Amino acid sequence: MTLDVFLLGGTGSIGTALVTELVARGHRVTALSRSAASDHRLQAMGAQVLRGDMMDPTRWMPAALSHDAFVQAAATFGDDMAEADNRVVSQLLTDAERAGPKLRVVYTGGCWLYGDTGGNIATETSAFDPLPAFAWMVHHAQRLLQASHLSVAVVHPAMVYHLDGGGVFERFRDAARSHDSVEIWGSPNTRWPLIERHDLARAYCDLLVRPDLSGHFNAVAQQGVRVGDIANTITRCYASQSSTMVRSVTDVMQAHGEWAKGPTLDQSLSSAKLQTATGWRPRFTQFQTALDLQNVKAD
C-alpha cells in the first residue's frame, strides 16, 4: 500500500528518520516547512515541501487533507508549543469533518505523559500522570481519538536516541567529546526507556498502513536503563576522561524550565501492544550495540 503522507516536524529528530523511512518504503511525503533551509533539507531526503507555520494552519490545512495520512511529529519545546499544537488539532478536527474519506492520523505523545512509573512498567492501560508542562498533550490526543471522522493512533515514544550519540544522549556525547563533566539530572539510578530513532520511524510507518488500529501505542526497545550506565557507556565510547556530576531536580528546572523534569523521571515502559498488533520489532534492543555499530569511538 502506497500512501500520500503529510508530515509536521519533518526536520526534527524523529521527523528526519521518518521521512527517510517513508520514502524508502515508497510512500509519497509532503512536509510543512518554514524556511528555505528546511526546504532544501526535506527535498534532499525525497520529500515535497509545503510552506507554512503551525501557528496558522488555516492556510495549509486544505492541502494537508488532500493526503491519505497526517502525522504530527513536531514539538518546539518553546512557550508556544501547546498553543501551536492546539491550533493544528482544532483546525484538523474542523476541516477533516468536511473533507470526505476518513483520514488516517498518527499523533505523537510521549513517555513523560505516564509520569514516574517507579517499580511498575507502564502499558497503554496505565493512567496518565503528565508533567504540567505537557498535560495539554493528553487532552489533544483524546480530542483526536474521540473524532469519529478520523482513524487515530497515538504513539508514545520512549526516550529517543541517535546512532551517533545524539538525541537524548547529546548532552552526554558533547561533554565526553570535550572531556567536560557529564551531567546527570536527578539521580544516576533513574531509568530511561529507550528507542533508536530509525526503529521509532519504522513503528510510525507500520501504524500508518493499519487504519484499523486506533488508540495509544508505546514505542520502546529497552524498558528502562539506568542513566548512570548510559553516561558511563558514552564516556567509554569516546575514551573520555570525563567524570559524572549529579545536579538536583530543583537546580535543573530552575536552569532550563519545567520540561527539564522529564529526564529526571524514573520510568519503565512496555511496547507489547505495538509489537503484537503490527509485528514491529526493534532492531536495536541494546543501545550499546547501536553506538558500537556507528563506530562512535572513531568520531
Overview of the molecule:
Strands 3-2-1-4-5-6-10 form a seven-stranded parallel sheet, sandwiched between helices. The chain has helices at residues 13-24, 36-44, 61-64, 81-99, 135-145, 170-177, 197-208, 227-237, 249-256, 272-278, 287-293; strands at residues 4-8, 28-33, 48-51, 69-72, 103-108, 150-157, 159-161, 182-185, 191-196, 215-219, 222-226, 244-247. The mean pLDDT is 94. β2 (28-33), α2 and β3 form a beta-alpha-beta unit. The longest helix has 19 residues, at 81-99. It has 299 residues and is of the alpha/beta class.
Number of helices: 11
Rounded to the nearest angstrom, the distance between the terminal CA atoms is 39 Å
Strand line-up of the largest beta sheet: 3-2-1-4-5-6-10
Give the H and E element order.
EHEHEHEHEHEEHEEHEEHEHHH
Overall pLDDT? 94
Radius of gyration, in Å, reads: 19 Å
Percent in helix: 25-40%
* % residues in beta strands: 15-25%
